[in-house]
Design brief:
By secondary structure, the chain is mainly alpha-helical. It has two domains: 1-108 and 175-294, Arc Repressor Mutant, subunit A; 114-170, Alpha-Beta Plaits. The protein is built from 13 helices and six strands. The strands form two sheets. It has a three-stranded antiparallel β-sheet with strand order 1-3-2. The protein has a three-stranded antiparallel β-sheet with strand order 5-4-6, covered by helices on one side. Helix 9 (185-204) crosses helix 12 and helix 11 runs antiparallel to helix 12.
Length: 294
């Protein structure tokens, strides 16, 4: 395997430096970003090539796929000597709302109704139940007993009530400091800046991106989305006026969308098939690229 381009090598090094690498999480990013637009099924050999481009060993990949299959996230089909994987019905159900958040056109939505759900900050079954409910119905997990819901449906409101959470209508001009503190926004503040520091050189070397190999471009794109996904899915759904002053989220969102678009065409060349119109439509809807060329 060829060594990665020097422009993306620091991104790969960071992936491996952030504690024990959760390969299964990177695989989920690959499914959501790269596999789903191409029909939803991927060969194990292709996963090994993509992840190998990020210096992830085959043994770790096999372990990750076994875990995802065992936990019901992916379905496996054997054809000859190769295995093929696709998201299960459970995996696809989680994928759709997450995709809408990851690739939305603006950073801070402007919901008509905002609900703050407050629960006891406890350890044990009650908290696990509340966290599972919040994740399943499109909210964020409780952070120190606080969760946010934007434009919740009647069904979601019913579920919040059944989970024994206090529900508050957040038609306010500002959030109390204790809510900001419990949402742990300060940690996200640093992580947004960290992502911008890591990927900023790609913008500064935009012309060089077109000279990347298709595999390097695809790896850079996946690493970009992986870092962004881990941030934006933890971020509370707050309108801009309720975020702290000088919040870096919108700037980071813009950077991510610019780099993603710059990598898109080159990274798509890795797939050894002619791009279908349906694939183009999926990609162009991301970050509202409609009207652009891929």
């Amino acid at each position: 395997m060829l060594a990665p381009n020097q422009l993306i090598k620091p991104l790969i090094d960071h992936l491996h430096s952030d504690g024990r690498l959760r390969v299964w999480s990177v695989v989920i990013t690959i499914f959501g970003d790269a596999v789903q637009p191409h029909g939803g099924t991927v060969a194990m050999s292709d996963l090994q090539t993509i992840l190998g481009g990020m210096n992830i060993e085959s043994g770790a990949i096999r372990t990750a796929m076994s875990r995802l299959a065992k936990e019901g996230w992916v379905d496996r089909e054997k054809q000859g000597r190769n295995s093929f994987y696709k998201l299960s019905s459970v995996g696809r159900k989680s994928f759709i709302p997450a995709t809408e958040i990851i690739y939305r056109a603006t950073f801070a939505p402007d919901p008509e109704k905002l609900i703050i759900a407050v629960g006891p900050d406890v350890i044990g079954h009650a908290r696990e139940t509340q966290n599972a409910l919040l994740t399943a119905f499109g909210g964020m997990r409780l952070r120190n007993g606080v969760g946010i819901f934007a434009d919740p449906s009647d069904k979601v409101i019913k579920q919040i009530q059944n989970a024994d959470l206090l529900m508050l209508d957040a038609q306010v001009d500002r959030l109390p400091d204790w809510v900001i503190e419990r949402l742990e926004l300060q940690q996200l503040f640093g992580e947004f800046h960290g992502l911008m520091d890591r990927f900023g050189p790609l913008v500064e070397n935009a012309d060089t991106l077109q000279s990347l190999s298709p595999l390097d471009a695809l790896c850079a794109r996946i690493l970009l989305v992986h870092g962004w996904r881990r941030l934006i899915l933890r971020h509370p759904t707050l309108p801009e006026h309720l975020l702290p002053k000088d919040w870096p989220g919108a700037t980071c969102h813009k950077l991510v969308s610019v780099i993603y678009k710059a990598l898109l065409q080159r990274s798509e060349e890795w797939w050894d098939v002619e791009q279908k119109k349906s694939t183009q439509q999926i990609l162009l809807r991301r970050f509202n690229f409609v009207g652009s060329e891929v």
